């Protein structure tokens, strides 16, 4: 991408966020109530995920179902407002009311599924505050596998272009505290991000369930088995069972890998670099300097 194109994109993002701030200062309550009423007629399903944990596969499998609009990272995309909304929660509400909810309302199917991992980074509390009660899928994958996957595609929080745009950073507010991380390897920062996702999933689950939301878990490895997907579907309580035709289509779709980054080689390890075990131990040590009771789940 040229420098000029990057500049134009950055300028467009700044203007978009400025417009959100203006909308947040003058909220149109009647407009918000009207769009929420429309969207509330649908069954909403969102992923709470780190990314690199089966969200694209989830979308593809839901896409085999009747009367379901299954989307992965549709426009309007959350990342344009994500980081500003972390510090200014009112921007999340403005983004939902002015942009995301109208797009959802425009879909024809009664069930709307979106598996973007960015949704849960800043937008779920605002959606709950508006009165919507989405069903949530908590994707599970080992932190090391997540960290290696992000490092492999050169998406490191705070450092690379992809990481800055799509991932949370230790420099962002209200996240898992981490001291003295400037000397960390890219792998260590990606590992911290996987730990932050675990923490965030636990916090958001408690918050969402307290508001009456249904939350279910799915392990990335289970998405290759039809039974696990059908169990998850039943747990979502969408008010119907899967048809024989849907089960046939799902049977042909599960286990089919679709990973646009599959051909990316792993990042070469510098000579003398510490083992994964040692790098992870240092991350946990520094996390526990601020959060002594933090426990990572493999």
Give a description of the structure.
- It is a single chain.
- With 298 residues, this protein is of the alpha/beta class.
- 51% of the residues lie in helices and 8% in strands.
- The protein is built from 13 helices and 5 strands.
- The chain has helices at 3-25, 29-39, 55-62, 79-87, 89-105, 119-122, 124-129, 143-152, 161-166, 186-210, 226-235, 244-253, 276-288, and strands spanning 43-48, 68-71, 111-114, 135-140, 215-219.
- It has a 5-stranded parallel sheet with strand order 2-3-1-4-5, sandwiched between helices.
- The mean pLDDT is 94.
Tell me briefly what this model is.
The protein is an alpha/beta fold and 298 residues long.
Distance between the termini: 37 Å
Mean pLDDT over the full residue set = 94
Number of strands: 5
Radius of gyration: 20 Å
Q: Tell me the major beta sheet.
A: 5 strands, parallel
Helical fraction equals 40-55%
Residue runs with pLDDT of under 50 for 5 or more positions: none
The share of residues in extended strands comes to 5-15%
DSSP helix count?
A: 13
Strand arrangement, major sheet = 2-3-1-4-5
Question: Pairing-aware structural class of the strands and helices?
Answer: alpha/beta
Q: Please tell me what the overall shape is.
A: globular
- N-to-C series of helices and strands: HHEHEHHEHHEHHHEHHH
């Amino acid at each position: 991408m040229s420098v000029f194109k990057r500049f134009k994109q950055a300028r467009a993002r700044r203007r978009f966020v400025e417009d959100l701030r203006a909308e947040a200062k003058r909220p149109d309550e009647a407009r918000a109530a009207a769009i929420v009423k429309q969207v509330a007629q649908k069954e909403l399903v969102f992923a709470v995920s780190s990314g690199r944990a089966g969200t694209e596969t989830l979308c593809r499998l839901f896409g085999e179902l009747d009367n379901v609009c299954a989307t992965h990272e549709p426009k309007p995309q959350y990342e344009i407002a994500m980081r500003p909304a972390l510090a200014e929660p009112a921007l999340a509400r403005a983004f939902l009311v002015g942009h995301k909810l109208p797009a959802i309302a425009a879909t024809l199917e009664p069930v709307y599924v979106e598996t973007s991992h960015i949704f849960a980074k800043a937008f779920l509390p605002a959606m709950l505050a508006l009165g919507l009660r989405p069903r949530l899928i908590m994707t599970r994958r080992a932190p090391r596998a997540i960290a290696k996957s992000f490092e492999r595609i050169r998406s490191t929080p705070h450092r690379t272009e992809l990481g800055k745009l799509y991932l949370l950073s230790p420099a962002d507010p209200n996240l898992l505290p981490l001291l003295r991380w400037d000397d960390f390897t890219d792998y260590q920062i990606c590992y911290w991000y996987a730990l932050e996702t675990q923490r965030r999933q636990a916090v958001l689950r408690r918050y969402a369930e307290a508001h009456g939301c249904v939350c279910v878990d799915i392990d990335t490895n289970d998405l290759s088995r039809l039974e696990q997907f059908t169990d998850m579907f039943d747990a979502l309580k969408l008010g119907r069972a899967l048809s024989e035709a849907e089960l046939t289509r799902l049977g042909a779709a599960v286990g089919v890998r679709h990973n646009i980054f599959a051909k990316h080689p792993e990042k070469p390890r510098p000579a003398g670099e510490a083992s994964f075990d040692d790098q992870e131990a240092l991350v946990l040590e520094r996390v526990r300097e601020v959060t002594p009771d933090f426990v990572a789940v493999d």
